[in-house]
Amino acid sequence: MDAVTTDDHPSILRLRAQILDLMDLALAAERAVDLSRIHPDHRSGAANLLHYRALRALDLRALQAELSRHGLSSLGRMEPRVMENLAAVAAILSRAAGQPVPEICRPFPTGEPETDELQRNADALFSASSGVTASHPGTRIMVTLPSEAATDPTLVRDIVQAGGDVVRINCAHDGPDAWRAMARNARSADPRTAVSMDLGGPKLRTGPITPGPHVLKVKPRRDPLGRVVEPGMLWLVGETDTATDLQSAPVTDAETLDLLTVGQDITFHDTRGRRRIARVVRTESRRVLIAADRTYYLTPGARLSCSGDDGRRIRLTIGELPSSGQYFLVRAGQRIVVTADDTPVNPDDPSTDLTTIGCTLPEVFSAVAPGHRILFDDGKIEGIIESVSVGGGGADSLVARITRAGLDGAKLRGGKGINLPDSSLPVPALTDDDRKDLETVVEIADMTALSFVRSAGDVAELLDTLADEADTGTHRGTDLGVVVKIETVEGFTALPEILLELMRHRRIGVMIARGDLAVEAGFERLVEVQEEILWLCEAGHVPTIWATQVLDSLAGNGLPTRSEITDAGAARRAECAMLNKGPNIVAAIGALDAVLDRMGSHLDKKSPVLRRLSAWTTPGDGPAATATGSEIEDEAVPTRP
Which residue in 37, 224, 593, 594 could disulfide with 163, CB within 3.0 to 4.6 Å? Predict the structure, then answer.
C-alpha cells in the first residue's frame, strides 16, 4: 500500500476536494433539520446521524479504495464520529499537498473523545429505578420472564444471579398483579436489575377456528423396531392441580387418588373401545403417576378402576380436558380466503371448497391490493393476494394464492401472525389496551418497548402520552426508558425519522426484532437489514437490543445449534442481547454471558480489537506459546523504550 506523498499532487488535491465536498454535504444535512426539539443529551448524536445519512446516500466505494491505496482511513468505521473522521483525512491530505488545513476542519478534534456517548446512553437506558447501576461496559443480557416468575421468586433470583441484567415482561400475557409480582421478585433478587415491559401493540392474527374434541392422547416411545423403550406416562391429579412435568389429566373425585398404591393396575376402555391397563408407578398427595405400554385416548367422563387392598373397586372419572387444536392443511398453489368475520370456522365444513379464515384487524382490507404479499405463522406460509373485496364490516375479504407452504404443506391455525410487508396498514402502534397498560408500566418499570413502530408519528404518540401521564403528577413517564421495536420493513425504512423523534426523550433505545423483520424483509435480506440498523443507531449514539431466537434451542432443550452460537457472538455488537424464556434459561444465560465476554476481547462494534492471539505464537516466543484456546490471557502491548 502506497503512503501519501507530495509526488502525486493532482490525485491528493482531488481527494482533498472530494472529502471537503462530503463535509459540506454533511453539514448542509444538519442545517436542514431543526435540532432544538432534540433532548440536549442527544443533540450531538442527532447531528452525527444526519451527517451519516447524508454520506450513506452516496456510493463511496471508489473513494474508499483510493483512500486505502494512499494508506488513509477508508471511512469504513466512521459511524460514531463522521465529521471527525472526514476532518482527520482532509487535514492529512492538506498537509501532504502543502495546503493549509481548511477552516471547516478546525471545529472537529481528531483525538479520542472525552466520553463515549453511546456507552453513556446505554448506561442511562438500562439503569434501574433503585438508582444503583451496575458497571457493565459490555453487552447486557435481557431475559423474558415466564408467567411463573410471578409466583416463583427462586426462578427470578436464579435468572438474575446467572447474569440477567434486565428482565422483560410481555404485556401481551398475564396482567397487572402478575407484572407487579415479577418486578418485585426481580428487584428483590438484585436492586440493580432493570425491568422492561413490552406493550402488546396491534394484533394482526388469523381468526379463531372451531375447537377440536376434548381428548388426551398418551403414547409410549418406541425404538425403530417398534419396541417400547419408555412407557406412556400420565399424572392423574385433582381438577385444580396441573403443575406437573409430564402430561396430566384431572379426575373429578381427587380424594380417591390417595387410595392408590404403587404397583396397582388400573383398567379402562379408551375412546376406541379398546381395553387398556396402566400401572401406578408413583404416588403423592392426591397425585398419581401411571404408565402404560399401549397408546390410548381419553375424553372427559372416561371411567378408570382398579382393585383396592381390601378387595373393593376404586373408581376414577376423568374431568375436563383442553380441546385439541384444529387446523387447515395448506399447500402451494391452493387459494385461501381471509375475511373480516371473526366467527370461528370449522376446517371440516363441507359447504365450501375454499379454505376460509378470519382476520383480527378489519382495517387491513382497505390497505392491501392485488399483487401484495401475505404471510402467515412467522412466514411458514406465503401467498400473493389476487383480489380484494371491501364491502364493509364482515363482508370485507381477500383471496390469496399460496406460493410457499413446505414440501408436504403447512398447518394454518387460529391466532397465528399475519404479515403484509407490501402494505401500509392504517392502524396506530399504540392501542387502547396499550394506553391502559401504560398506567402499570410507568408505575413499576424502568423502560417500555413500543411494538409495531412504523413511523415517527408512532413514536410521537407514545412520548406525548407519557408526557400527559407525567402532567398528572402521579407518574414518572417523562423519565421512563423508551425502546422502539423495529419489526417491519416500513419501520426500517423510516428509521432515521423514527430516531430523530425518539431523541426528544432522554433514555432511549432500539430493539432489532429479527423475527417479524425476517418475515417482512425476507430471510436472505435479514443480515443486511440488521447490519444497517446497527450502523444507523451507532451513528445516532442510540443503544440497540439484539432480539429474537438468541440461543433458543439451548433455552428450550438444553443443546444449542452451531449457528446459534455464531449468532450469539454477533450480538456482542449490540448494547444488549435478549433471551426468550425456556426450561433451560439459566444455562442459556451462562452460555451467552461467556460468549459475549470472549467476543468482547475481539470486537467493539465494527472495529476488530487486536488482542494478542497466543494460539498462533511461534515456538520460542515465551510461556504463552503453548497456551490453548481456553488459556489465552490478555497481555498489554509492549511500549518502546
Answer: 593
